[in-house]
Design goal:
By secondary structure, the protein is α/β, with parallel strands linked by helices. It has two domains: 9-180, Spore Coat Polysaccharide Biosynthesis Protein SpsA, Chain A (Alpha-Beta Complex); 198-208 and 220-276, no CATH class. It is built from ten helices and ten strands. The chain has a seven-stranded mixed β-sheet, sandwiched between helices. A three-stranded mixed β-sheet has the order 5-10-9. α1 (22-35) links the parallel β1 (9-15) and β2. α3 (147-154) crosses α4 (156-163). The longest helix is centred in the first third of the chain and has 14 residues, at 22-35. It is globular and about 55 Å long.
């Protein structure tokens, strides 16, 4: 098991662009402080450190070193984490956590589970039979798999088109293979918390028993789910069900997006998020 007794545990996050503000980093630091035993250090790899609390060490974004062709999905910028060296000369075992993540229980086990050389991912619960990993929260040894970035730089078009998602590339590209966290630890908000449609119109999302971390791939984001909205771009308040249906029918001008899918994008306010996702 990883030896974390002699040095602070290392946690990494990435913030680039404007989609996530500094409050996401600040809240992540507070959640870790409430749910991790002993000393830790949060490193934020970012292109803008404005507004981030001083307890967080901000470092420059590592270079991806290649252009990902348009038309691919996923957050390929995260692949830069597989560099031989990271800014700040970071070394050793690190836990990467996406900013749109809620920590709801003690996370000591994320540092002691398995072997220090393991690459451990969350399971992709949307396609559980495919044995795909999800990089919302994963542990790795910094600099131990540089071929991942080397191979991507050598053929960014071929690799990104083949795998589409960065996390699929990690799933299949790590030569020693990946491992998963214990099943109950890491839950997917839409899969494990949100009732299926139409029950979600009447029952608020639940917090699964035994969960330690809730991930939010895609939509909604934690702040939106807390307020009871799927998207933040057109409304700051929760819409009652009939208003939601009316809004979709009147405003869904995207011919590539089905009305039925947009109608199902409904959520009631989620009070337990406020308890955990806060500074």
């Amino acid at each position: 098991m990883p030896d974390t007794a002699t040095q602070p545990r290392q946690i990494l996050c990435i913030k680039w662009g404007t989609f996530y503000g500094p409050q996401y980093v600040n809240i992540l630091h507070s959640m870790v402080a409430r749910n991790l035993t002993g000393a830790f250090k949060l490193y934020c790899l970012t292109d803008d450190a404005t507004g981030i609390r001083p307890e967080v060490t901000c470092l420059p974004l590592p270079e991806l070193g290649c252009e990902i062709p348009p038309g691919t999905w996923g957050k390929w910028r995260k692949a830069a984490l597989w560099s031989r060296e990271l800014p700040g000369k970071l070394t050793g075992v690190a836990l990467f956590v996406d900013l749109d993540t809620i920590i709801v229980g003690n996370i000591d086990g994320y540092f002691t589970h398995g072997n220090p050389d393991d690459v451990i991912l969350a399971r992709n619960w949307v396609k559980p039979l495919h044995r795909l990993g999800q990089t919302s929260i994963f542990r790795f040894k910094i600099g131990s798999h540089p071929y991942m970035l080397d191979n991507l730089r050598a053929d960014p078009g071929g690799i990104s088109r083949k795998y589409q998602y960065e996390q699929h590339y990690v799933t299949h590209g790590i030569k020693s293979g990946i491992k998963f966290w214990p099943g109950a630890w890491t839950c997917h908000f839409r899969v494990h918390c949100l009732p299926p449609f139409p029950l979600r119109c009447f029952i608020p999302p639940r917090l699964p028993k035994g969960a330690k971390i809730i991930t939010f791939p895609g939509r909604p984001n934690p702040d939106d789910a807390a307020a009871g909205r799927w998207y933040h771009d057109d409304n700051d308040q929760h819409r009652p069900l009939l208003q939601h249906f009316k809004h979709v029918l009147e405003n869904n001008r995207n011919p590539n997006r089905r009305y039925t899918k947009r109608l199902r994008d409904y959520i009631l306010p989620t009070p337990w998020i406020h308890e955990h996702w806060r500074e």
